[in-house]
Amino acid sequence: MGLGGWGWARCGTPRLPGGAGALWALVLGRVSPRREGSARCGLWVPGGRVSVPWGARGLRSSNPFTRKQEEEWRRRNRSALAYIAAAAVGMVGMSYAAVPLYRLYCQATGMGGTTGAGHGSEQIESMQPVRDRVIRVTFNADVHSSMQWNFKPQQSEIFVVPGETALAFYKAKNPTDKPIIGISTYNVIPFEAGQYFNKIQCFCFEEQRLNPQEEVDMPVFFYIDPEFVEDPKMARVDLITLSYTFFEAKEGQKLPLPGYQ
Q1: Mean pLDDT for all residues in the chain
Q2: Mean per-residue pLDDT for 98-124?
């Protein structure tokens, strides 16, 4: 790169007779530069270039301390890259495990309106119904926009008491001329009641295949845990809605998490 017709040295400090003062004189045009055709680097000037010491053009320091520091930096960079790669692999693994883990957590806590998975048969048989607390359970059915099934509940509502089992039915029909596989999600409203709404038998999260024009009944066997009446947050709850949504099962399709859109 030139400046006023003068080319600057690519490395080091120009070596001129008389030291630094000569360099200023050269810049001001008061002296002529020393020609040295064999110099490998220097300050380019009209008619030649000024040589600079060989040591001035080296980019890598010969200082042992500097070399050791550079090696330490390289080692730290390799370690940092290894940590980043391990974290990326871990995040990918967690993303695959997130849905089943979240589903188990929701079933255990009732979060997001997810119903429980039900208790053992002995506990169900020993439950004591709470007769003075009647709850109305309503049923809702939806299908995804791409799903071509007809899906609806066979009853609009039933009345149950905590600690007593109940049976409800949904009906699904495939009105098309081709087989369709569906899979459903569910939730409970209000969400806080989901932890007390336990399913003994259900068709949710299981693939259901219907042949052309086939129609089937889908049972839901459930009960409301007697602990429902002991929760102060449930004191004013006398209506619970159980809602199912069917999606067409396709390879690679991910179902929405219960309670979230």
Answers
A1: 73
A2: 52
| pLDDT score at 241 | 96
Higher pLDDT, 93 or 228: 228
Query: pLDDT, tens digit, for every residue of 186-221?
Result: 999 999 999 999 988 888 878 899 999 999 999 999
User: CA–CA separation, 137 vs 224, rounded Å?
Assistant: 10
For residues 95 and 261, give the distance between their C-alpha atoms in angstroms, rounded to a whole number: 18
CA dist., res. 258 & res. 146, Å (int)? 19
**pLDDT tens-place string over residues 160-178:** 999 999 999 999 999 999 9
d(CA 170, CA 140): 9
Secondary structure of the chain: what % helix, strand, coil (to 5)? Answer: 30, 30, 40
Which residue type occupies 97?
Answer: A
Q: Which residues contact 191 (CB under 8 A, 6 or more apart)?
A: 110, 111, 112, 113, 259
Q: Three-state SS for 159?
A: strand
Alpha carbon distance 22, 33 (integer Å): 9
CA 261 to chain centre: 15
131 backbone dihedrals φ, ψ, rounded to 5°: -70, -25
- Structure token digits, residue 153: 């509940």
Rounded to whole angstroms, the Cα distance separating 179 from 188 reads 30
Sorted by sequence, the CB contacts under 8 Å of residue 258 that are 6+ apart come out as 103, 106, 112, 113, 114, 185, 186, 187
